[in-house]
Request: fold
Amino acid sequence: MLNIRKVSFWIGLFFILPFFLYGAGDYFLKTTPEFRFLGQVLVSLNSLTVIGIGWLFFKLYQNKNKRICWSYLSGRVAEGLLLAAGLLFTGNPEPSGSLPDTSRFFYFSAMLALSGSSLPLLVFLTRLKEIPKWLGFWGLAGYGVLGTSCLVELAGIQTGLWPAIPGGLFELSFGIFLMFRGLNSARASEHPVS
Reply:
């Protein structure tokens, strides 16, 4: 049995943790070889965390819309595996400090999987009134911009990090919202779900 309030808190925390896990893991992977293992551990934990977000949403909403839940879980699994593959198996960064082409491919493919699977989930959560409309629209806009910029990057045109900012700020805000306010069904009822 899952308690909606507790699950909301964990989903929120899992939305925030990847900023630190992936950021620190990426940093340690690019420093001296002595810290490479620590970087691999942190990136692996990041992958488990993003997959955990998908799994927890699946557990909460599989009885309401299995197709969207499977889509979101699949997108999060793809994101986690692609991010891990991009940093764990690509090797050392180029001397300029930029990501090698293979690593860039894995990263932008992961962000595309995240964006593509998050859009239907946000529409679903907004229609169910689980999250406020303004938050749902912000997420749709942020992930829409991120997904579009990933397609452009994969086509070979560099866009920089600017297009990731609206989605990143949404994820931080959404995480905080879920941790401290929770989903609407968590506030309306403290009944556990299976």
The two ends are 4 Å apart (CA to CA).
